[in-house]
Amino acid sequence: MGTRVSYPAEVKIKAIEMRLAGIPVKEILEELKIKNKSQLMIWMRWYKAGETQRLHQPVGKQYSYGKGPEYDSEEARLQAENLYLKQQIEVLKKYVELERKWLG
Questions:
Q1: Does residue 104 share a domain with residue 77?
Q2: Average pLDDT across the chain, whole number
Q3: Do 86 and 47 belong to one domain?
Q4: Does residue 1 fall inside a structural domain?
Q5: Does some domain include residue 18?
Q6: DSSP character at residue 21
Q7: Who contacts 104 (Cβ-Cβ below 8 Å, separation ≥6)?
Q8: Distance CA 36, CA 14 (A)
Q9: By residue range, what is the domain housing residue 45?
Q10: Residues 51 and 77 placed together within one structural domain of the fold
C-alpha cells in the first residue's frame, strides 16, 4: 500500500473550483500536484453531497472526525453511554486503590 498524502483544504477547494470552471482533470492534477485523479473525484463527491467539512479533515479521519459513533436507537446510545460511565468509575476506583497502596 502506498503512502498517504495529505493535501491542505485550500488545495482541495481550489481543485473543486477549477473543476467546476471546466478545467480538465489532467491539468488540475498537474497544476496542483495531486497524485491521483480518484482523489479529486472523491472531493467532488463530497462537495456535491454538501459534505464540505470533510475537506478540512486529516487523512484517515473522514468518516469519524467530529461525528462520534452512530447508533441504531436511543436505547443503544444510552447503553453505550452507560458502559462508558461504568468504565470511568472502574478507572477511578483503581486509581484510589493504587493511591492507598502508595500512601498507606
A1: yes
A2: 84
A3: no
A4: no
A5: yes
A6: T
A7: none
A8: 16
A9: 9-56
A10: no
Q: How far is Cα 10 from Cα 14, in angstroms, rounded to an integer?
A: 6
Q: Which residue has the cell 460511565?
A: 85
Phi, psi of 60, deg, nearest 5: 85, 0
> Who contacts 7 (Cβ-Cβ below 8 Å, separation ≥6)?
32, 34, 39
The secondary element (H helix, E strand) that includes residue 30 is: helix 25-32
pLDDT tens digits, one per residue of 61-70: 555 555 566 6
44: which 3 cell numbers? 467532488
Q: Which three-class secondary structure state does DSSP give residue 23? A: coil
- 91 domain residue, yes or no: yes
Please report whether residue 63 resides in a domain: no
Tell me which residue of 3, 5, 12 sits closest to 56, measured CA to CA: 12
Enter the C-alpha cell of residue 43.
472531493
Q: What is the residue-wise DSSP string for 35-74?
A: S-HHHHHHHHHHHHTT-GGGGGSPTT-TTTTTT----SSH
Given a cut of 90, whether residue 22 has pLDDT beyond it is yes
